[in-house]
């Protein structure tokens, strides 16, 4: 067995290997070094488009508000100003006051903390469980996989809100992590199901078979070979679960099942309804709902961005059709018109020869 | 494999003595199956087993929840209702909540099943000691009517809209996508409250709540039905608007994927009118995952309806559950949960049947 | 000299609802190092099943597979040593490399797993392997698979297979998914490597022409059974089995075409 390397310049590529020949004769430019930052940038590529960026910005603003709440809110959320109850928005109280003079704006700012902390916590719990159950169920075969799948299907079918109501109402004053756990309990199943399907299709791919044939240990196959390819799905599932967690949390707070000691936007609405704020005192109940919707929109935008990254067909479908329309072609036309003369929007004559589209339409 | 021919090997003669029509016989890989619709027993059997398992799981969860939590709340519950319960009712409740520690757990479990199969769900303290089953039976039709009607309308409108938007990609209708998505992220209950404030209190177009005017006796007369319809309008509109976004987006995305397929291009190249391609080819295939996601979102729909009823004081299961929660009426809460689970399972079965009918692949012989 | 023997291997798959599918029926052959065997058959004839059994992704229902006379161990150190001796090149260059990882990662993993060279020499060995398959290491090592062409990817797959210095190579239709114009380049590379490294190669294909060009011996597989075997030229030029004759007749032969055309035009005024 020879071990002397064949110098690339000397090796004569066979007549049928043009691509290697091109590589050898091309200018020797080493590939860019993969630093940690460039790899990080590459994995965040799914957030690169405009929709994701917009969603991330909104989410970032909410996070900043939650972190810097004491500095942003002018008053404590429970501070009562009994001389200024049910006041409409003014310079002292940007969003008015409640029936006992609490500043609605401060409540909203501090409420952001409740929403984001519990929301993130619940989503992290749910996603971890979803990954464990989903990827394992996808990789294993036979009854183990089927039973894990049945487990996640059961939790998918069971209606979430009634289950949460029953469990939450058993507690008198549950700590934060229990609330998050209850929310996570009803939210993990969807991600597990999607991950299982994706892992099953990945498992049959040749590169996984090659890794198995190479003798890679199981934990390396799952963690190093499979998991990076599942990143987009996990990100999308995370965002979706967070939306559900935030909605679930605010709904539970609005119903009154979660004790009001945990301030979030839903609690504001609970108090608003209890004290007949509808319809007159709009400043009390409109902003909280708008915040929930805005957070939901931000998360949905991030998810759109990830969707378009994963499924390129969605990305350019609209743009391609619009570009075609500009050139006078209907994307849905059954018959493609053949142009006999150059259209006004075709490329200049010098490029016409090289561009097949302008001559054959 | 042909028979050994006496002709020289260099002659490229037709393979077999008689020509065989491959469309009749099929290739070695598959066999074309024509004719009658076969009942997909394996598919049905699998789904039935799953639903039975889910029902069992729900009942078992229901059994264990009160036993896992601290008993104080339950004891207080029993204490409050002391003296008002018949001995039988008290025994049933003790069994449901696991307060009788002399009986071993597995025995309690079997007795619980016995109770359920007899139709005994315990007694509800918040509705005057009526059996839980009766309270639920009075409220269920209202919920089914409201949610059934609203969900079907929302699904149909959303799917059709999504199909049209997907077809006209890049057109003016694309702007509807972010609009409906935004509406979908608004929490149901808040939208309901806003609508009440806007359309009822301010504009006075619709009544603010309840299913019919207070103090009126229900009956099958035009006046009553008219009242029911007018009172149901606002909740229905709220549900439809809030849930439209999900259907539109899902259908649009599926349409975009389907429209990229080659068979659509072939259909158009054959000269088929656009309307046929849109509805009978593209939408027909894109709607299959929609039905699946409909089945999966039933749990979520139930949640939304519960809150909707609370907002509109609609006398359905949701309002019942709210009352039970506030009164800490555990028996009623658990009974409602079971009934909701059964309802969701039934709806899932219906969705599965619809899917099996629409998707020819489930009807085929399984290889 | 390493010898791999298939002895009376039968593989049955259970198919739900309609019994069993016989993928392989009493298949026997021997592969030595420094030898190339071409395994020819159409889709569904059992070629890929043989490849899967060889790489231990499946096990035979009956019969056995022996390496140097001893049965292949199912687990543990013995299995690892077997895997190191026999490597596979997959058919689809687009799917056999992990899209997330760099080329360096792909060629490095077998080196690290089997501890072929000491740790500080791994990088140099990766470069050597890439040069062996006539790729420029600096240009491809840090790239991801999607940045390379199909032919380049297949060369990387070959480099990966050679990393553990196996004695035997299974090439499962290595050029079927490549452009016709670059097939010869990759096949010639395989032939050169086989000669220089003294490998035993099992070349699985449905293409008679390349099988003849590349192999010493050819086996024809039909519905799981070996219907013909022998030296390459014999099987192609003087086929005895009717199935082999059909296969041969099915592949276009330019000389035949022109001869018949000449016969037609001289035979009559058509």
Overall pLDDT of chain B: 76
Which protein chains make the most extensive interface, counting residues with beta carbons within 8 Å of the other chain's beta carbons? A-B, 59 and 66 residues
Strand order of the largest sheet of chain B: 1-2
Tally the helices of chain C: 11
| Helix content class of chain C | 40-55%
Based on CA inertia axes, which overall geometry of chain B fits? globular
How confident overall, as mean pLDDT of chain C? 87
Proportion of residues in extended strands of chain C: 15-25%
**What is the alpha-carbon Rg of chain C in Å?**
20 Å
Q: Kindly report the oligomeric state of this protein.
A: heterotrimer
Strand content of chain B: under 5%
Helicity level of chain B:
55-70%
Record keyword descriptors for this entry.
heterotrimer; A: 361 residues; mainly alpha; 16 helices; globular; disordered C terminus; B: 367 residues; two-stranded antiparallel sheet; disordered N terminus
Please, could you describe this protein's structure?
The complex is a heterotrimer of chains A (361), B (367) and C (270). Helices cover 64% and strands 0% of the residues of chain A. By secondary structure, chain A is mainly alpha-helical. Chain A starts with 17 loop residues before the first helix and ends with a helix. With 367 residues, chain B is an all-alpha fold. Chain B has 15 helices and 2 strands. In chain B, strand 1 (123-124) and strand 2 form a beta hairpin. The relative contact order of chain B is 0.12. The model of chain B is unreliable at 1-16 and 29-33 (pLDDT under 50). Chain C is an alpha/beta fold and 270 residues long. Helix content of chain C is 41%, strand content 24%. In chain C, the strands form 2 sheets. In chain C, strands 6-7-8-3-9-10 form a 6-stranded mixed beta sheet, sandwiched between helices. In chain C, strands 2-1-4-5 form a 4-stranded antiparallel beta sheet, covered by helices on one side. Classes of the chains: A mainly alpha (361), B mainly alpha (367), C alpha/beta (270). Chains in contact: A-B, A-C, B-C. At the A-B interface, helix 6, helix 7, helix 11, helix 13 and helix 14 of A face helix 2, helix 7, helix 8, helix 9 and helix 12 of B.
């Amino acid at each position: 067995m020879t071990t002397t390397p064949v110098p690339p310049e000397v090796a004569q590529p066979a007549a049928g290997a043009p691509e290697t020949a091109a590589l050898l004769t091309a200018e020797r430019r080493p590939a860019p070094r993969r630093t940690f930052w460039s790899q990080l940038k590459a994995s965040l590529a799914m957030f690169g488009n405009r929709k994701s960026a917009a969603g991330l910005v909104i989410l970032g603003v909410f996070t900043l508000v939650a972190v810097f709440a004491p500095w942003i809110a002018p008053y404590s959320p429970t501070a009562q100003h009994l001389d200024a109850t049910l006041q409409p928005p003014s310079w002292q109280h940007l969003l008015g006051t409640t029936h006992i003079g609490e500043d609605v704006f401060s409540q909203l700012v501090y409420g952001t903390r409740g929403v984001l902390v519990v929301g993130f916590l619940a989503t992290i719990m749910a996603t971890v469980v979803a990954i464990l159950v989903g990827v394992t169920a996808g990789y294993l075969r036979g009854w183990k996989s089927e039973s894990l799948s049945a487990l996640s299907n059961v939790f998918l079918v069971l209606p979430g809100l009634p289950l949460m109501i029953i469990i939450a109402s058993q507690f008198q004053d549950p700590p934060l992590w229990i609330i998050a756990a209850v929310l996570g309990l009803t939210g993990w199943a969807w991600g597990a199901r999607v991950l299982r399907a994706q892992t099953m299709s990945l498992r049959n791919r040749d590169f996984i078979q090659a890794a198995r044939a190479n003798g890679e240990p199981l934990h390396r196959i799952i963690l190093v070979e499979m998991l990076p390819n599942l990143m987009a799905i996990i990100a999308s599932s995370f965002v979706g679960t967070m939306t559900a967690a935030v909605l679930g949390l605010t709904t539970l707070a609005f119903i009154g099942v979660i004790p009001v000691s945990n301030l979030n936007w839903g609690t504001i609405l609970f108090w608003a309804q209890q004290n007949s704020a509808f319809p007159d005192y709009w400043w009390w109940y409109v902003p909280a709902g708008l915040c929930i919707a805005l957070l939901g929109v931000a998360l949905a935008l991030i998810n759109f961005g990830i969707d378009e990254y994963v499924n390129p067909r969605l990305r350019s479908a609209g743009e391609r059709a619009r570009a075609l329309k500009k050139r006078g072609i209907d994307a849905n036309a059954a018959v493609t018109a053949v142009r006999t003369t150059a259209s006004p929007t075709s490329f200049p004559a010098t490029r016409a020869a090289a561009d097949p589209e302008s001559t054959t339409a | 494999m042909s028979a050994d021919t006496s002709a020289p090997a260099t002659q490229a003669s037709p393979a077999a003595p008689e020509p065989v029509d491959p469309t009749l016989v099929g290739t070695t890989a598959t066999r074309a199956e024509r004719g009658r619709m076969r009942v997909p027993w394996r598919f049905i059997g699998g789904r039935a087993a799953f639903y039975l398992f889910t029902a069992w799981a729900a009942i078992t969860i229901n059994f264990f929840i009160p036993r896992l939590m601290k008993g104080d709340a339950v004891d207080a519950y029993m204490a409050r209702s002391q003296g008002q319960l018949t001995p039988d009712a008290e025994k049933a409740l003790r069994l449901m909540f696991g307060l009788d520690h002399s009986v071993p757990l597995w025995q309690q479990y079997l007795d619980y099943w016995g109770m359920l199969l007899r139709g005994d769900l315990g007694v509800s303290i918040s509705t005057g000691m009526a059996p839980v089953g009766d309270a639920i039976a009075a409220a269920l039709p209202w919920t089914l009517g409201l949610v059934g009607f609203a969900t079907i309308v929302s699904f149909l409108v959303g799917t059709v809209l999504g199909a049209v938007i997907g077809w006209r990609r890049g057109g003016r209708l694309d702007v509807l996508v972010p609009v409906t998505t935004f509406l979908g992220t608004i929490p149901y209950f808040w939208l309901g409250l806003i609508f009440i404030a806007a359309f009822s209190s301010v504009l006075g177009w619709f009544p603010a709540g309840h299913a019919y005017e207070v103090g009126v006796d229900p009956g099958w007369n035009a006046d009553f039905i008219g009242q029911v319809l007018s009172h149901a309008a606002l909740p229905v509109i709220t549900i439809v608007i809030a849930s439209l976004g999900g259907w539109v987006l899902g259908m649009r995305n599926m349409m975009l994927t389907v429209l990229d397929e080659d068979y659509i291009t072939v259909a158009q190249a054959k000269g088929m009118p656009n309307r046929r391609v849109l509805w009978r080819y593209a939408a027909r295939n894109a709607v299959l995952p929609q039905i699946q996601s409909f089945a999966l979102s039933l749990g979520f729909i139930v949640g939304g309806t519960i809150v909707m009823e609370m907002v509109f004081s609609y006398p359905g299961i949701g309002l019942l559950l709210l009352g039970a929660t506030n009164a800490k009426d555990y028996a009623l809460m658990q009974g409602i949960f079971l009934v909701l689970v059964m309802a969701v399972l039934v709806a899932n079965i219906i969705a599965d049947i619809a899917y099996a009918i629409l998707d020819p692949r489930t009807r085929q012989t399984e290889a | 000299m390493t010898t791999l023997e298939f002895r009376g291997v039968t593989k049955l798959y259970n198919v739900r609802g309609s019994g069993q599918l016989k993928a392989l029926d009493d298949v026997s052959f021997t592969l030595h190092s420094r030898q190339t065997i071409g395994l020819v058959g159409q889709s569904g004839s059992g070629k890929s099943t043989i490849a899967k059994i060889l790489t231990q992704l499946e096990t035979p229902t009956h019969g056995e597979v022996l390496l140097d006379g001893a049965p292949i161990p199912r687990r543990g150190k013995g299995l690892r040593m077997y895997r190191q001796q026999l490597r596979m090149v997959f058919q689809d260059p687009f799917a056999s490399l992990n899209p997330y990882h760099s080329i360096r990662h792909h060629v490095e993993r077998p080196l690290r797993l089997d501890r072929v060279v000491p740790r500080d020499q791994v990088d140099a060995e990766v470069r050597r392997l890439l040069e062996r398959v006539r790729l420029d290491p600096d240009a491809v090592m840090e790239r991801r698979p999607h940045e390379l062409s199909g032919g380049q990817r297949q060369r990387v797959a070959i480099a990966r297979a050679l990393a553990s210095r196996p004695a035997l190579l299974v090439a499962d239709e290595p050029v079927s998914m490549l452009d016709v114009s670059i097939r010869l380049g990759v096949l010639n590379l395989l032939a050169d490597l086989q000669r220089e490294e003294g490998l035993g190669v099992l070349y699985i294909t449905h293409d008679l022409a390349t099988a003849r060009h590349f192999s010493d011996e050819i086996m024809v597989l039909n519905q799981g059974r070996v219907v013909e075997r022998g030296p390459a030229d014999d099987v192609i030029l003087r086929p005895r089995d009717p199935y082999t004759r059909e296969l041969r007749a099915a592949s276009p032969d330019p000389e035949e075409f022109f001869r018949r055309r000449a016969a037609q035009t001289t035979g009559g005024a058509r």
